[in-house]
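Blinded run. Sample ID left blank on purpose so nobody reads anything into the name before looking at the predicted structure. Input follows.
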Amino acid sequence: LRFYSGYAATNEKKIEGVSLSVVSDDVFLSAFGNILGPALAAGVDVILQTEPRISVLATLFKQLAEKVGFPKNAIQLLPGDVNLTNLLQNDSIGFINCFGKVLGKTFPNLESLVKAPVIAVTKTKGPMIVFNNADLESASDAVINAAWGSATVLPWSLSIVMVQEDVYKVFVSKLNDHLSKVRIGPAYEKLADVSSVHESQLFNIQKVVEEAKVVGLQVEMCSRM
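Blinded prediction complete.
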């Protein structure tokens, strides 16, 4: 919010209207920051429409925002399956933002339907935190699915894994064990868990690994690599 508020303070263009933000179930929590950050920092109220599963987290986000001082009307929730047709055409909507093509799937002719500009957040990276009371077996699977799931074609993925220090070694060992069982193959291979790396990408990976070693970082290598 500090970054966006700084930008809003120096931006001469006046932002008017309410922001309509649409978030699907299959997004990282960082999407809330990408979508809501600019609007809230600019002092624009947000109507947040969320799919059923992520509505619980959106409610918690709203409660936390109000607890730290946000006005109660700053974020208005529309959870679950909602018909957005009338809202999209409402004159009070200043701009619309969504994660990926969520709106486009429901409204193929979105540009001709709405009056306000549409901002789509198509790509994002998210972190993962593993606490010492976590199920480390499940956490290992979650890392693999989040980083390489769906043949890595999703526009969002895991970038950083932060592990509580007292379970770090155990977690890394379990993660390596899980990685050694991952099936690697071409992107079109249905039985493959992870797409195989192209030669050009392999060179870049090896370069990054060597650079990490030079600066003294510990590099964990899977037994199959």
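Unblinding after everyone has recorded impressions. The longest helix spans residues 199-214.
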